[in-house]
## 1
Amino acid sequence: MDVINLSEQNSVLNHYLREIRDVNIQKDPLRFRRNIERIGEFMAIEVSKKLHYEPTEVQTPLGVAPVNVISDQLVLATILRAGMPLHHGFLNVFDRAENAFLSAYRRLNAAGELEIVAEYMAAPAIDGKTLIVADPMLATGMSMEVGYQALLKHGHPSHAHLCCAIATPQAIEAVRKELNDSPDVTLWCAAVDPILNEKKYIVPGLGDAGDLCYGVKIHLSERP
Ligand code: URA
């Protein structure tokens, strides 16, 4: 599994990242969602450089021009709800892609440990296609792993690009292990942050991406 951390190279991506982290700027949900979407757009262009292309010709009003176009069949997948703006960033770039949506929630198992359960899934056939999974915060890697395994029920992609805004080293290692260090997977992130706090939030991170996009939800411990 290749890991590509896009902030290892300076680019405008740093500005979008700075704004989603900034405790004051992130309070504007429209701006927060748009910045996550802009990260998706930037990342999609980077991913596009790794895809396959085939030569075609296009008729202009004055002649015929050659152009190489993407030959991969793309499926964009995301995990509700925090993944939606990142997904939309990808969809703005790959506007003809098919789409897959999954819902996953956290619950405590019989041993009192946190687990993630995938529930609703609406996805096309994935066999032989190029799968892009957008999940903005790769904290433990659990939701990405559960989501990815659920998607495999619809077929095996020829290559998977797992895309997040912020990842932790422990999540990257967990995903690598879960996927048996598969050579057909690339993990993309805009930054790697060092630690998780006791509530499994990334530090320094940005807080709760879902809440910042869509408002505060009732948390696991507060559910009736
Ligand atoms: N999900 C978030 O929204 N933030 C984190 O820091 C970790 C998981």
## 2
Amino acid sequence: MKKLFETRYGHFSPDGREYVITRPDTPRPWANVICPDRYGTIVTQSGTGYSWMTHATFNRLTRWEQDLVRDEWGKWLYCLDRDSGELWSLAWSPVRPRFDFYECRHGLGYSTFASEIHGVRAELTIFVPPEETLEIWRVALTNRSRRRRRLALTSALEWNLGPAPDTHREFHRLFIETDFRAADRALYATKRLNTIAEHGRGQPWNVEWPHVAFHAVSERPSGWESDKRGFFGQWGSAARPEAVAAGRLTRTSGKWLDGMAALQVNLTLPPGGTRQVAYTLGIGESLAEARRLARRYRAPASVERALRATREHWRRLLEPLEVHTPDPAFDLLTNHWLKYQAISCRLLGRTGYFQMGGAYGFRDQLQDSQVWLPLAPERTRRQILLHAAHQFRDGTAWHWWHPLTEEGAKKPLNDDLLWLPFLTLQYLRETLDWRSLDERVPFLGDDGKPSRDVGTLYEHCRRAIDSFWQRLSPRGIPRMGAGDWNDGLSAIGAKGRSESVWLAHFLIGILEDWVELERRRPGGDAAVSRRYALGAGKMRRAVNRHFWDGRWYVRATRDDGTPIGSKQNHEGRIFINAQTWAILSDVVPPRRLPALLDSLRRHLYREYGPLVLYPAYRTPDAGIGYLTRYAPGARENGGLYTHAGLWAVQAECKLGRAAEAWRLLRSFSPVHRGMRPDFYEVEPYVTPGNVDGPDSPHFGRGGWTWYTGSATWMFRIHSDWILGVRADWDGLRVAPCLPPGWKGFTMRRAFRGARYSISVRRGRKQELRVDGWKVAGDRIPDLADGREHQVTLILKGSR
Ligand code: GLC
């Protein structure tokens, strides 16, 4: 078997769809975030993690705490040899046995742990069937020894049932009630208090948790346990719970416990014999539903069917865009992992190991929903409408809001609202679905509840944009408020006077895109077009007049008018977004471009990716915000912030600088960075939120993986900019920025009702053909006939 990108901790499977971890002691927890719909679970290479439904912080099923070092919370499976007394766990945690063999394979929608110890081979697969509110743990045990083995398999998990973490456990445990039903082979758990009031469910602190949790097993249990003390013993440990070691659980359930669930199954295996057992853990809206679910996966065939359906689900979801290039790392990220990260973790799970979440960020999940554009654009549309419903009448929006309670935070981060038109523009360019602009969605009233003011999506976008005319500084660029894309600039505009240059770039791009939209949409408004074109032109001139700092653009001004991201500053002299978006929105005039590019390369492009700013702040600055309080070189304070780093790659592609774009992208590709795992530390199969910058002693160390908006952007930049296949108003453009040394690539992609099989190679003369017919320019005209078409592009140049 060919091992792709092998290190001492693991490698990718030959098809790139699995990451195989071959030893459990990875430098950090290496996780999988599995969430095909409402129900989700996180599992690390050692078997720790947690489960939730709909909201990972407000509706957590199992207890867990973020501990970066001990990583000791999870859902366990123990195996006891009832003759020899040997006790181990099927994953490394919590017993941490010295396995003869250990492998954790993280896949798309599942994780598998294979182990061997004491002559017993075990395989445990954890997965969440699509459209179910449960997870299945499929276990197979094989006796590889020469004697008959009498084994006891025992599960264990602690109930959380509601908002997490429940640090005041002595209080919370008093509301949990558990019940064992032998006929169902299941334990049930409810909680008679919910400290949040889920939408429409009365007062918090005096309502029930509106679900019933269950933990079930396919075999008749020989024992069960619902009390943590009964299971572990008062001074016992997870590595050797007293009840498991004694081979006997107390069979307790009721209301007076420290609620947990454990189910024990006794198995006798002859030499060479194998047995399958399936555990489930899940949640129902009522006891009746929980009971139905608890009994659903008893037969091995139903478990196999569910696992097949799970794999099929993820395959079908991700396959509409597939590429083959000379670079296997690029391929496995584009074809599998980036899309999976964006969908499973960012859009559906909205939580990770390094960030427990559950809320929707107004700008965050809108940007994430770009991943659907080439896969299932109606889901981008759904996301846009969801966010439109969280916008106020004056055009502003929640900064984030919680599903379940619909509470939100209204912070004046002045870019939030603009992502709505930004995404609507992307969506329309992909689909030309003009009717979506007529979708009617209520605005929020001042009380944060849907008001009677209902507007079309078109009106929602226009109110967001038009709100800026009242929010310009005397010099004519947008006020920042309490931050813009950069959350860490949280104090810079406390008095409402600071100006954001990045926000000006962002707005200029949107205004000019909107001009194009008005020209094209049926019944487009010429007066709006004119006004926006004028407004954009004026703002571009204002930026260039007041904020060009000689060799780059200033980032912003504070309330008192002094600049940040300027040569006048000692710390935070140059910020990347003010430069990259000057290119992306065509703000920088050609005569200034060479100096700008030179500054990017000189100050920001470093060995492990483009820095978000340089040099890092060392002095906390109450007039800037919390980014100055981060350790120097960490996150927004002078690290590689992957999300922003990707815009540098896009900008280089936009300028057609293929070698620079590729060099940059490669410099922070997680797969390549992961080839030095003890240095880079984090998972090689997903993007990290940040990598420490040169002002940190850990320059190059990755962090905050999975829950980062960079996954979608990396996917888009791979497909739309490096490979250059992107939606344009007039059709699908094929304008690659081909890395040096690549001979070509192929891509399958759907677009506006047709499927395209695109193949690009280098040659002497530029030539685009669709089904053999020559086409002028670089756009495939819309065919929209539901068929598959062959597209070939010969790119001029031999490199
Ligand atoms: C975090 C936030 C995102 C923000 C970024 C930069 O990822 O979720 O909204 O743009 O940080 O500060």
## 3
Amino acid sequence: MKEWTREEKYRYLKDPQELVGLYDRIRGSRYRQTFHNQAVTGLMNDPNGFVWFDNRWHLFYQWCPWGAVHGLKHWYHIVSKDLVTWKNLGVCLLPDQEEGYDNKGVYSGSAMPIGDKIYLYYTGNHRDPDWTRHAYTCLARLGNDGWPEKYPLPLFGAHHDYTENQRDPKIICGVEEGTYYMLIGAETKEKHGCVLVYKSEDLQHGWHFEGELSVPGFEAFGNMWECPSIERIGGKDVLIFCPQHLSIPGRGGSQNHNGYIMGTMDWEKLTFTPDGQFHVLDFGFDSYAAACANNIEDADKAVLIAWMGVPDVSYPTDEEDWAGCLTLPRELTVRGRRLIQQPLPELKKLREEKVELRPNEFGACKLPEAAELELDCRAGHVRVHLFTDERGEGGLEIRYNDVKREITVDRSGLKTRFNLQEGTERTRPLENGLQHLRIFIDRSSVEIFVNDGDAVFTSRVFPQETEHHFRMEGDLFPRLWTLKPAVKEEFLI
Ligand code: FRU
């Protein structure tokens, strides 16, 4: 694997032409996605600043242009009218060079549209020449012309009672008229993850520290809490965050989880009272740093999108100098004490052609490279093997055990194996059995929605040339569609 020097990782982008050669090489990769957002070159990670503004959805993501490395981060800008088809707009926020507050990266954050501008809140990742880190909460303003204007001074710096890990501002509106809150992911000096709360009456000035969010029962729950957010959905509050360096039974050696706690938020007392345990948002192998759109009108819903990847691991395309993509956007609702995640209804527009299933002599059918497979499942055991060879062998197995009432996704049969330390299986109990599966397949990913969003498994897969069939066992009623492309491969920096 390539070893990156600090100079290579943090090189400033001066001219888009510097990336042409890299782009020409990457665009030919068999693993480039057709309906998931991915970076033009290099690495993408967290989605940022997700809002509805000027008749379209705006979304940004963390982007390091130079290769599959967490180096100098920028905000890259994409837009969509329907959350299905996306358009690249190019890089939006670039790190300021040398002395700037964000000289070593424009880190994650959120956005709020007011009037004819979108306000972008982000973390300025600053390093001194001796590489000491300082986190600043910064603001930029973006108008219809697409040019961001950074405020010359940060809104505030890091709080001295916590470690240097303070980042990912999430702006919260609508709690009280004329008051705004901001959440910052942080870590106590004892290295316990937490959330800091800031407040202001003006989006642009006067932010002051209100205190640390109290979450009874979660005082020592992993290190730094990345990308925290509190969403109000259907009259319930949901705290969504990514606690670092935490082992969760059943999740292999993975230390990276994105999850949520349902509960009640008291903004005056700065207390989030949990209503139950921490739930993993997505049971698959590759999902992290989920972000909800900031101005959804429907009080019963949220729209969430996540990075289809996790930190501290490598992916097979690293060797091709690119990595990462985003998940499909999902509609979040609350059912009982759980979040339900469903593909947006608009995604049905992607369906191109209904494919008639014609099993070959081994009982395997051809799997298109971009497809949706929907299955009604009746009682009994179920096995669905995706990305098998033409004999129906190997691949990714989805199996439902009707006795134990649990569903398992097992990737051990795939030829391209990676991140083995994270394990090869993920299991989730299904109290009411398995009734329905909706599976979205792109060239290098699979998203499995179980029982209308009761559970989701999102994973990257890198099928080889021989792995383009599938096979099913059980009492099933399957439908298969090919899907249209929804993202464009184009050189736009
Ligand atoms: C989460 C994260 C954030 C940070 C960003 C940097 O994946 O580590 O906490 O702002 O990525 O790219």
## 4
Amino acid sequence: MLAGKKILLGITGGIAAYKSVLLVRMLVKAQAEVQVIMTPSASAFVSPLTLATLSKRPVLSEYFNSESGEWNNHVELGLWPDLMVIMPLTANTLAKIVHGISDNLLLAAYLSARCPVMVAPAMDLDMWKHPSTRRNMEQLILDQVFVIPPGIGELASGLYGEGRMAEPEDQFDCISTFFQTKATLIGKSVLVTAGPTHEAIDPVRFIGNHSSGKMGFALALICARRGANVHVVHGPVSASLPSHPNIVGHSVTSAIEMHEQCLNLFPEMDWAICAAAVSDYRPDVIQTEKIKKQGDELHLRLIKNPDILETLGNTRQKHQTVVGFALETENEIENAKRKLEKKKADLIVMNSLRSEGAGFGSDNNHVWLVSNSGTTEIELASKEQIAQTIVDAIELLQHEK
Ligand code: PMT
């Protein structure tokens, strides 16, 4: 997959820079062409000679090469690669690229790059958590940069926490996946809702359901692999949010919180896919103390939750595509068609509780795609395969719009 691919590898001045040696080795072994650019301070952490030897190309760092007397043209560097990777991405370079500063060759090449850019941030845990870094990371994602998220572990400072750069093997996997998948959604932003909501009754009890989040997460992963920037708003799930540079998770508990988070994100989105099993009702009062056992009956008064899918369907702009799910137990197709119309969706993915080995919690699903152009059954398959078919169908709908 990587043979002949041109990768511009930007290395900045952080202790994790020494790991770039391993990444260059893996990329070259996979027959990619690698051109290394270093910020001036990066050479204090890793030797340009080692990188030049491994990449079989001179390492660039300054605009002007005093040895050859040549000018290192950042515009040419920006046009050359199929992918630019910056690893480690320090807090300093992050802040600079977000603000368009170009006071070194690497930054000027970033601003000139026409190809997608992937970054692997690395910094101390407090720098990573700092509101300033949070703001810069949010902007970076809006700028369509692929982020290979840092992990939790021992840091160079001796502290333990989040900020440790993803290992070179993981970076290599992300780069390979990037070239493997059809990148049909580059530049698109997708909102996915996933999992259940929990509607508090008192401090220890809630109304919930059996959704694990697997269906929504599979959709998020497929969209991310195709190049979209994906925001997943999920309730309290048992499945793990897929780890992919393009996926940002927003964890919520109740339908009201999910509704609010979705409304905040939706204006920037091209698609919304509502796979969450949102509670239609919530207790009108949340008791502050645990309800004591008393009498033979307990009556709870429930009030209606806002319908997120319906709100998005009603408020969307022309270019936005809205997809809902329907979990039915009877008159499945008719109910799904009603939801398509009422919630002003482009597509409803119907799954029936009557399908064996599918739906809630299962790794598989069996669905019917219901749109104004007809109904198609998708036989039982893994949720990832179902998600691929759903995303194919949404792409097709978009072309027909
Ligand atoms: O999470 P898993 O274990 O993988 O299970 C997957 C799933 C079964 C939860 C999923 O495939 C599914 O069917 N999700 C939708 C379940 C559901 O709540 O269906 P519904 O028919 O009640 O709702 C219709 C649509 O309106 C859904 O898109 C739902 O997200 C949306 N909705 C519903 C109520 C509400 N207040 N707000 C909403 O947005």
